[in-house]
C-alpha cells in the first residue's frame, strides 16, 4: 500500500486538528446551552412555587382553600405548558390544572426535588415542594410539571446542524490544509529540483535563502554546505586524477624514450644492461607510487586498521635517526632527540609516518643545520615535533602541505623521485591512530607537530 505524501499527511492532520477543535467547541456550546435551558426551566418552576407559597401564606384558615381556587387557576393555568397538582398528606387531590393532564403519582414520593419524564413523545420536567397553610396540621404537597418538548426539538435540530457544519468544515479544512501544506513545502520542492539538476558540471548551484521559511533554513543551509563539500571534493578528485596522470606519464615517457634509443641500433651487452637498470628504476618508482595511492585510497575508506600495541616512541625515533645519520652527515646536518614517551599503535605505520617527516626535514635543512625531535606529554596527548631550520613556509602553502601531489616548488617535482605523497600518507596514518599532524613555520624555522593518544 502506497504511503501518503507529506502534503497529504499535513492536510489530513490539519483537518483532524481543526475538526477536533470544532467538535469540542460544538459539544461544549451544546452542553452549556442545555444546562442554560434546564436552569431557565428550574427558574420558571421556582417562580410558580414561590407565588403559590405566598398565596397559601395569605390564608386565614384551612376553610379558605376553596376561596383560592380562582387565584390558583389564574396563577397556574395561564401557562399552557405548565401542569400543577396539589394533594394532601393522604394523597387526595385538592387541585389540578389543567384537568386531564396529571403528573405521574410516582413523583409524589420521589426523593429528588427536580425530575423529568416522557409522556406520549413529549418531554416534561417537574418540581415537588411542600405547602403549609396557616393552622394546617400536616403540610400539602405541590407538584409542578413543565412541558419542554420544544427545547428538546431545538437541541435535536442544533445537533443535526452541528454535525452537518462539522462535515462541511472537515472537507473545507482538508482542502485548505492541502493548499497550506503545499505552499509551505514549496522550498522542499525547490531543494528537490536543485538536487535533480545536480551533476558534475552544476555543483556551483545553490538554493537562495531569501524566500525560505525560518524552519527550513537549517535544511537548506545543510544542503548548500553539502553541495559546497561535493564541489570541493570533485575539484580535488579532478586535480588528483590530473596529478596521477602527470606523475605516471613522466616515468612512462622515460621508459619509452630509453627503450626506443636502445633499440635504434645494435649495442653491446653492457649498454643493454645499463638501459634495463634504468628502466627498472622507473618501474620501481611507479610501483612505489601505486602502492602509496592504494594506501591512501584504503585510508579514505576507513580500511586502514592499525595494530594496537604499546610502543616506546623515543625508541622508534632513535632507530630512524640512526638510519638517516649517514645521509645527515653527508649533508653536514646534525640530528638530536629530546624527551620520551609511550603510545599505542602500529609500529610499521608509525615508523613510515615519522620517516616521511624526517626525510622531508633532511631535504630542506641547509648544511650546518640541526634537526631536533622533541617528545612532550601534554595531558592525555603525546606531542612529537620535528624542527629544522630553513626558509619559512608561507601560510597559503601550509594549508595544502598534506594534499596529495602538492609541492611548494613545482620545479622540484622530479627531484629525488618524490611524488608528493609522503605528508598525505603521514596524515592518514595519524588519523588512523586517532591523532593529527600540523605544520608551523616562522623566522627561518619549520616545525611539524604530530599528536598521538598518550599511553601511560
TrEMBL record:
It is a multi-pass membrane protein. Keywords: ATP-binding, Cell inner membrane, Cell membrane, Kinase, Membrane, Nucleotide-binding, Phosphoprotein, Transferase, Transmembrane, Transmembrane helix, Two-component regulatory system. It catalyses: ATP + protein L-histidine = ADP + protein N-phospho-L-histidine. It is found in: Cell inner membrane. CDD domains: HAMP, HisKA. It is an enzyme of class 2 (transferase). Residues 243-456 form the Histidine kinase domain. GO terms for molecular function: ATP binding; phosphorelay sensor kinase activity. Residues 182-235 form the HAMP domain. The chain crosses the membrane at residues 161-181. NCBIfam families: cztS_silS_copS. Member of a two-component regulatory system. This is Sensor protein.
